[in-house]
Amino acid sequence: MNSSAVIAHSLEGHCGIDEWVYQAVFQTDPSLKQLARRKIREMAKTQGIVSKSIGPLYKARGEGNCQGFTVPAFNIRGLTYDVARAVFRAAKSAQARAFIFEIARSEISYTDQSPDEYAVCVLAAAIKEDFGGTIFLQGDHFQFRLSAYQKDPEGEIQAIRNLIKEAIEAEFYNVDIDASTLVDLSKPTIREQQELNATLTAEMTRCVRSLEPEGMSLSVGGEIGEVGGRNSTVEELRAFLDLYREKMGDSARGLSKVSVQTGTTHGGVPLPDGRIAKVMLDFDVLARLSSVARDHYGLSGAVQHGASTLPEEAFDRFPKIETAEIHLATGFQNMIYESPHLPLDFLERVYGVLRERCKEEWKEEQTEEQFFYKTRKKAFGFLKKDFWDLPESVREPIGKELEEKFRFLFEKLQVTETEELVNEWIG
Predict the structure, then answer these.
(1) Do residues 123 and 20 share a domain?
(2) What is the number of structural domains in the chain?
């Protein structure tokens, strides 16, 4: 028996879920890593934990059969297993089921988390917290990079196709296509500005449909305005969706939602002293866009990105104006970094790594606080194992702080007690 077989035999005999997920992430032997990931998926299936598409629920919403809630989509950049556990604990106590775990194309790269790894971490967390039933995994911002597209259009299109395939194979049954980076505002009409966006979103939708499992209709999202740019308009929404429908044809299954820009930026805007600038989110614009998407196109509504750094009093407004979904990421990252439980020597080590590895990103006008705020997301990739290896005495209280935040969000977004809703439309 070779060394890998001996280790595999030992794992099968003695591993708990904590060790299985650690092996699934950090094992250097590819065969043993795959063994761990298969084992986690088998355990999840035995426990009734199943990844599904949220599409049927969004279709019901677009048809007016349910309303009054906003689905939170959580991007987890670091301490993924621990953070996902906090989500599931909060969900169990709040009886929440309508929520999504997601990871963006850019995050896959800088946090060093493939879709398959991310999926098994979420599954392992559900197993650990005894959370049975449906979960939702989403590819967020499967985004066309403008510079790459300009240099090699076919190469960038194929990169998105490959990412879609990889994600679906990892049981991501919700995919957000983002070609809004290719919107050309220099063109004379809104329709011409949105032409390429609509064309490529339709092409990637067909790619998703060609890969979806038999009997399942994946939820696909589009985007009309790059987050951080100027606010979206109803005219842009209509131009994009009309063009998209033309490209897809009347009988084709299309989008379930559309992301818009209403005043936020990803991660927020850090001020020189390290505080985050107040966000001027236009809820009236968001409400109009959501209404048009639902009433005229049968979508679930509009999606708001960059919401995690908003003030707490803003969150209960999203379900009141029928926002379909909001994406949340940086706020949880900030809670980890700013937790009093994170050792100062560890934090100094993080900042030392950032000074060295991200020094070319330090802009002349930035203070040190602004530089660290903008780059510290990358430390989750640079020091992934170091974060995972933090002692339980550090990770547990951070997890409890995050659990309280997730519970707050579930309550404010009106997704508590949604098990019956999810079961009714998704099963």
Answers:
(1) no
(2) 3
Reported pTM: 0.93
139/188 same-domain check: yes
Among 273-287, 299-313, 390-404, top mean pLDDT goes to: 390-404
Closest CA to 294 of 25, 54, 67: 67
Domain with 132, as residue range(s), is 51-335+395-425
Cα→Cα distances 111→11, 136, 352, 384, 405, Å: 27, 20, 17, 8, 22
> What value, to the nearest 5°, has the Cα angle with vertex 100 and ends 51 and 424?
65
Same domain as 377, residue 297: no
213: Cβ contacts below 8 Å, ≥ 6 apart: 168, 173
> Could you give the C-alpha distances from 203 to 105, 185, 259, 373, in angstroms and in order?
18, 22, 18, 36
Q: How far does Cα 256 stand from its chain's mean position?
A: 16
Does 23 share its domain with 146? Answer: no
Strand partners, 133: 49
Q: What is the residue type of 256?
A: S
